[in-house]
C-alpha cells in the first residue's frame, strides 16, 4: 500500500496525462462529468457519482465502424481503424467499475467486439466511497462501496491523502513509474483503509438487502406492478442513457452522394421503435412491456445469461427519472425484499 | 487491422426472380464467386444496402445446393423496398451466418411435417430441400403451405413439381380466400392442419409463418397429440446486430438471433409470452 498527498494530485494528473489521455470527474457549468484532463481542469473528486457514468469512454454513444462508397453497381467497404486503448480513467466509483464489468460480459463474449476490447486496454483507477449517497444501493447487488475488484488501482480517501493500492499487473506497472509522487503510509494510515471499507459498507448495509429476487425472477414477469407502473413512464429513455450497464444499440447509415458510413449508436428499450418490425408487429406493443423489459433484463434475464445482475445500484435512474420510477420500489413490489431503514 | 464483428462483406446479387406481387427471390454470391459463407438450414444472414440499412433474412436455399445463397424477401419496409428495386449484378453487403438453425441431427429417421404460411416458407424451404437431398435419412415428408390467395403462393415450381415428385413426399396447399381458377383447399393453415389430422407417431413438426398463424398451429398440433418437444418453430424479431449484443430480440433471457431463431415448443413454453 502507498499513498499520495492530495496537494500533489495536480502533479500526478499532469504526469499521467503525458503518458496517455486521462479522464477524470470535472465540473463544467455546474455539472460534474468525466472529461479529458487539461491544465486548469476543475477536478471534483469529492462528488460521488458523476451525472453520466464513464460508460461512453469504453462504449461511445456514437461510433462509425465502416465507410462505404457506392458507384453504379459497385460497392466498396473500408473498415474504420480500431480506437486507441491506452488511456487512464481516474476516480471511477466502484459501482461504475462494476458497470464496466457488466459491459464486458456483452462485448467481450464471442464474437468479441474488437473496438470495445481495444478501449478496455485502458487503466482504471477507482476511488472508494467513504459515505455512499442516500440514493445509492450498490450493496444490494453484492458490491462494495469501498472496493472495486475489477479496477487496476484502488484509492481510498484519507482526508489529506489518498491511499493507493494496485490490484493488477497493469496497475502495478503504473504505480512503479510514480515513485517520486507516492509515499509509504504509516501503519495507522494503512489500517484506516479497512475501517473506511467497513464504515462505507455498514452505512449501506443498514439500508439495503436484496432477497428473493432470484427465486421470484420467473413470477416477476406476471407481477401486478407492471400493470400500473408504466402508466406514468414518459418513455423518455433517460434511465437507459444514464445507466452504466445499459448497452443496447442501434445501427444506422449516413451518406452523402456516393460515400457514407455505418455507425453504431446507443438505443433504448424504452422506445416503441426499438422492437417494432417492418410488418407492423411489435412484441412489446405498449410502455408496460417496455418498462417490464428494462427491469426484468437487469434483475432476471441478464443474471440468467451472465451470472451477475445487470444493475450496480449507482442510483442514477432513481435520481433522474422525471416521474420518479424507482428500481428499489420495483424490486419490493415485484416480490423481492429490498429494505430501506 | 482488426475488423469489427459487424463488418460485412461485399456480395453480388446474381439473379432476381419474382415469386409473387410482393416477394422476390435473390441469389447472392461472394465477390469472387461461390457462397459468401457456409450455413445450415434455418440460419440467417444480415443483408444491407448501404445508405439504407441492414435487415436479417433467413437463408432459403439449402446448404451445398448451389454456389450462391438464396433469400426470398417480401417488400415490407425500407431495406426490402430498396432490395426490390435493384437489378441483377448489383453489389450489396452481407454478414452471417447467424442463429442456431434447425436441429437436423434430431430429425433423422422421423416423419417430418412442415407447416408454412406466406413468406414463412422461406426458412422451411432450406430444410425441405436439405432433407430431400438426404432423402434416405428421413421418413414421410408432409408439407402444408398456405397463403392469402393463390397468387401469393411462392416457390410454385417446387410446390407443384419438385416436392410432390420426391418419394413419400406430399404437399397440401391452401389459400385464405378462394377465387376463380382455384380448385384447391380454402381455409387458414392451422385449421387445415387439424383437418388433415397428422399422426404425432415418430413425427417432428416444423412451422414458420405470421405470429398469429404460429400461435394457432402450436395449439392445433397439441390437440393432434404432438408433444411440445416434437414441435419446432422459427421466430422473427427486429434485429440489429445478429450476435446477441444490441439487446432487442430477446424473449426473456434468450436472444432470437443467437439462441434461436429455431426453438422447440417446450423451450418456448418456459419463456415469457412476448413473441
Instruction: From the alpha carbons, calculate the radius of gyration of chain A and give it in angstroms.
Output: 22 Å
Alpha-beta classification of chain B: alpha/beta
Number of domains of chain B: 2
Q: How would you sum up the global shape of chain B?
A: globular
What structural class should be given to the helix and strand makeup of chain A? alpha+beta
Would you give the CATH topology of the largest domain in chain B? Rossmann fold
Strand order of the largest sheet of chain A: 1-9-8-7-6-2-3
What distance separates the N and C termini of chain B?
39 Å
Mean pLDDT of chain A: 91
CATH fourth-tier homologous superfamily of the largest domain in chain B? Nucleotide-binding domain of ferredoxin-NADP reductase (FNR) module
Strand order of the largest sheet of chain B: 10-9-8-7-11-12-15
Tell me the number of helical segments of chain A per DSSP (H or I, 4 or more residues long).
12
| Quaternary structure of the protein | heterodimer
Tell me the distance between the termini of chain A. 35 Å
User: Any idea what the CATH architecture of the largest domain in chain B is?
Assistant: 3-Layer(aba) Sandwich
Largest sheet of chain B: 7 strands, mixed
Quickly count the helices of chain B: 7
- Give the CATH level 1 class of the largest domain in chain B: Alpha Beta
What is the helix fraction of residues of chain B, given as a range?
Answer: 10-25%
